[in-house]
Design goal:
Layout (H helix, E strand, L loop, with lengths): L23 H15 L3 H14 L4 H13 L3 H11 L6 H20 L3 H13 L7 H14 L3 H14 L5 H13 L3 H12 L6 H14 L2 H12 L6 H14 L2 H13 L4 H12 L3 H13 L6 H14 L3 H12 L6 H15 L3 H14 L4 H26 L1
């Protein structure tokens, strides 16, 4: 119910453009801020950025980086204001580069506030700028991701198809993203084709291997599933990222001892995302109380790649523990976190929660609201039918009781 392959995320693009600037007190403070941001120490980064801006208020990149850090902290409205300060209404190489950066930040800030049309407009403006043209694909992927969030799966597929056609099919991230979309739409064969293309690109495409493993396991094709996951379990893990991926691989295989061992090593090397997957391992072992602790640690860590999922899994743990008040609290916190697409992740558990609380009419309303946004979700369609059956049964029971 709560386990899922990690979806493609655009939030990781926050620091794509950030560069060191060099000498002078302002430049030194800025460089230190960038270093802290890349280490996930966002609050500390802001202090140095504020000093840099005081020393030199004319640098557009200072405001852009300030906005990017605020995005990582979930302060999207405040970030939007910083990007506005950085806009340059001139046509030259430097202004083009800066404007392209701020459009990225604006798109993320708008997504965080649920202003999806504005986010798409920012992506379109960025693509029209000649500078950094090699990054236009990232903006197009973000645009497709926004369309997915808003339930426009047809529009998202069109964007992915256009990218692959323009780039002669050599874009690993696009294959992974489109494969994930096909999987959500229940088109497993097309999903497998895309994940296979991503895996065969020559890059280490861990998400593609994990997705292929899960699809093949769901089809009962254990041999091909093992071939897919072997691409990860055979790596010689040395870095925190590699240990994280190895831990995830063992988690998917159900070897929770090996998973925990590698995730602990990854965490020791500074990878906060390992906390999330340690929580997933504990959930798989039915240790829901300990799992909640890991998800709480992860949420507090400052990492944002799986924050909405962490709120969702924590709520799931409390549902299993039948602590419905805490479960509802985590769903509410997750929905209010400002994370793009949080509703899509948390909406299903909201329906499950109301069902477990026997609040079937609330469950029906929540399911109907979810399907208005994501009409193609066949699982939720079936769930709504079940809820309506439960309501009819309860109503008949009440009617019979009154007649006695």
């Amino acid at each position: 119910m709560y386990r899922a392959v990690k979806r493609f995320s655009v939030i990781v693009a926050c620091s794509v453009f950030i560069m060191a600037t060099g000498c002078g007190k302002a430049g030194q403070e800025y460089d230190k801020a960038v270093e802290l941001m890349e280490s996930g120490k966002y609050e500390d980064s802001l202090e140095h950025l504020e000093t840099a801006i005081k020393e030199n208020s004319e640098k557009a990149e200072y405001y852009i980086t300030y906005g990017m850090v605020l995005n990582n902290l979930g302060c999207y409205k405040e970030a939007e204001k910083e990007f506005e300060k950085a806009y340059q209404d001139t046509e030259n190489k430097i202004s083009g580069q800066n404007n392209k950066q701020l459009y990225l930040g604006q798109a993320i800030a708008y997504m965080g506030q649920g202003e999806y049309n504005k986010a798409i407009e920012a992506c379109d403006k960025a693509v029209k700028i000649d500078q950094y043209s090699y990054l236009d694909v990232k903006f197009k992927i973000m645009k497709a991701s926004i369309k997915e969030i808003t339930g426009d799966t047809k529009g998202a597929l069109e964007v992915y198809n256009d990218i692959l056609e323009d780039e002669d099919g050599q874009i690993t991230d696009v294959y992974t993203a489109r494969g994930s979309l096909y999987l959500e739409l229940g088109e497993e064969k097309k999903a497998l084709d895309d994940f296979s293309a991503a895996a065969g690109s020559g890059e280490k495409c861990y998400d593609a291997y994990f997705a292929m493993y899960n699809i093949y396991m769901g089809m009962g094709d254990n041999a091909n599933a093992e071939k897919a996951i072997k691409n990860v379990t055979d790596i010689k893990a040395e870095t925190a990222e590699e240990m994280l991926q190895l831990g995830k691989a063992y988690y998917y295989k159900g070897d929770y001892t090996a998973a925990s061992s590698n995730l602990d090593k990854s965490l020791d090397k500074g990878c906060k995302d390992a906390l999330y997957y340690l929580g997933m391992v504990l959930m798989a072992e039915n240790d829901y109380t300990a799992a909640v602790g890991k998800f709480q640690e992860y949420i507090s860590s400052g990492s944002r790649s799986n924050v909405a999922q962490a709120y969702n899994q924590a709520a799931g743990c409390y549902i299993e523990l039948e602590d419905f008040i805490s479960a509802e609290s985590y769903i509410d916190k997750g929905l209010g976190s400002g994370i793009s697409g949080a509703y899509r992740i948390l909406g299903k558990n909201q329906v499950v929660l109301y069902e477990r609380m026997k609040k079937y009419k609330k469950a029906r309303n929540a399911a109907e609201e979810y399907l208005q946004k994501y009409p193609g979700d066949t699982e939720m369609q079936k769930e709504l039918l079940f809820i309506n059956t439960r309501i009819e049964t309860v109503d008949l029971g009440k009617k019979a009781a009154k007649q006695q």
